[in-house]
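Supplementary Methods. Inverse-folding protocol.

Structures were first reduced to a discrete structure-token string of length 492. This string, shown here, constituted the complete conditioning input.
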């Protein structure tokens, strides 16, 4: 059968842009369909605007706490319009430099603005803004339609205005009092940022701790830091209903000791994401779905061998970096017939609070559940000289590794630049670099990266023993004291 295109990509977010780029690089005749703007959630309502807001809030925080660094700085009231314009300028700069249609058209990709739906397994119908309909066929089809904010069925929510990541960066005024529903990464990042910008912030969540996927010890330290800044947490909490009274929103929730309520000027829903596939008419293509998203195998292929789904629309991971990784897997598997698979073992994630919290590989609970023997190698930020000079000593590195040879199973880092540090561990794990190899690698001083190496040094420390040192003293005739090995948690 002759097709109009070798590759049809539906969606122009991180997953779609990467998929289309790879396909064109392989010489495939490619079209990419996007119903809004290229760049998707990451550029317009996700990563870029949120990290820009986080940076602005951190500048305000440092100004307010200048005496900590020996500097006193006066600051005026924050102009919301200036802040939102700055956020918009940054995302437009990213769009111009990386996401404009012309960039992809120069690569030979046809960029089409419109809404796509299947009419058969190989046929896509596109409706543009003028309601003009066009049908095209493709040999391979990649669904990259992303996800959107999940709105929970809370009684009364439909009667009030609320914020999600889609509307958060368009506000006219910073809320005097903000209630964040959801203590995952988005909720925690925005809670800290708005608190630093001057809002009173309450965070509600059904879970017993914040950031449930992360190390409990580290997430508790982070929670304490946010509480010191003024964020109020209501965990183990079930929201019962929401109502509007005299222009203010009241959130009623249930605690273990009874009903409680808080008032808010605005509510931010940070209650997770849902896959975008309802409008695709997947039934016409015979593509199977499940509650969380489109069903795919480890090569991102659906039950139809020529149709692939990539990124958030699968309900897996929902990180921009994983969308790009999955795009590489899907495009390479489909177009080159090279059987790449999703790398499940080395998926890093970072919550961009201050301090940051990052993780890669297996968690301690996963290792315990699988019965894998491991040691924990710890190193505090208070012993990292660069952290001391920066006044950023709150934090801890925890590495889970095999005692015998230092094979790394997973790592968690809480602290300044944790996102960069966790990347070192991801690289080490992917390439079979042990803690011994890590410790033997020269790192520049003074850096946070050196802290990651010093955590690896603890493998050497833990593998020494009093008996070993006594034998060394006896063999070489050394006369110094034997180190104290009675404390298993000692850090050198």
């Amino acid at each position: 059968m002759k097709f109009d295109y070798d590759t049809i990509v539906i969606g122009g977010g991180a997953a779609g842009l990467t998929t289309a780029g790879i396909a064109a690089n392989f010489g495939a005749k490619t079209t990419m369909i996007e119903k809004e703007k290229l760049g998707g959630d990451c550029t317009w309502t996700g990563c870029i605007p949120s990290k820009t807001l986080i940076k602005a809030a951190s500048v305000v925080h440092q100004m307010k706490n200048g005496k900590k660094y020996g500097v006193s700085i006066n600051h005026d009231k924050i102009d919301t319009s200036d802040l939102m314009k700055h956020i918009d300028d940054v995302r437009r700069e990213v769009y111009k430099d990386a996401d404009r249609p012309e960039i992809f058209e120069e690569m030979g990709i046809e960029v089409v603005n419109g809404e796509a739906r299947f009419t058969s397994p190989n046929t896509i119908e596109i409706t543009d803004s003028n309601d003009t309909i066009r049908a095209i066929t493709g040999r391979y089809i990649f669904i990259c339609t992303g996800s959107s904010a999940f709105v929970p069925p809370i009684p009364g929510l439909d009667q009030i205005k609320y914020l999600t990541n889609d509307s958060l960066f368009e506000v006219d005024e910073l809320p005097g009092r903000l209630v964040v529903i959801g203590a995952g990464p988005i909720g925690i990042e925005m809670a800290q940022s708005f608190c630093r910008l001057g809002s009173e912030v309450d965070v509600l969540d059904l879970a017993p701790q914040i950031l449930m996927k992360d190390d409990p010890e580290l997430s508790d330290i982070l929670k304490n830091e946010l509480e010191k800044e003024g964020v109020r947490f209501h965990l183990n909490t079930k929201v019962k209903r929401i109502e509007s009274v005299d222009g203010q929103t009241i959130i009623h929730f249930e605690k273990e000791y009874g009903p409680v309520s808080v008032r808010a000027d605005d509510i931010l829903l940070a209650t997770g994401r849902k896959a975008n596939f309802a409008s695709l008419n997947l039934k016409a293509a015979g593509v199977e779905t499940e509650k969380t998203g489109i069903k795919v195998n480890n090569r991102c292929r659906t039950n139809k061998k020529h149709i692939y789904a990539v990124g958030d629309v699968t309900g897996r991971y929902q990180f921009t970096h994983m969308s790009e990784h999955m795009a590489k897997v899907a495009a390479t598997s489909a177009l080159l017939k090279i059987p790449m698979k999703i790398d499940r073992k080395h998926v890093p994630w970072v919550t961009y609070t201050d301090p940051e919290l990052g993780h890669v590989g297996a968690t301690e609970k996963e290792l315990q559940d699988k019965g894998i023997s491991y040691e924990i190698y710890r190193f505090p930020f208070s012993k990292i000289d660069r952290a001391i000079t920066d006044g950023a000593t709150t934090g801890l590195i925890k590495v889970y590794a095999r005692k015998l040879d230092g094979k790394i199973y997973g790592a968690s880092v809480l602290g300044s630049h944790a996102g960069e540090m966790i990347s070192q561990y991801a690289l080490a794990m992917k390439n079979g670099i042990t803690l011994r190899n890590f410790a033997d690698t020269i790192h520049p001083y003074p850096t946070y990266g050196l802290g990651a190496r010093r955590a690896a040094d603890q493998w050497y420390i833990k593998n020494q023993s009093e008996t070993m040192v006594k034998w060394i003293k006896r063999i070489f005739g050394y006369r110094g004291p034997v180190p104290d090995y009675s404390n298993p948690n000692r850090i050198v």
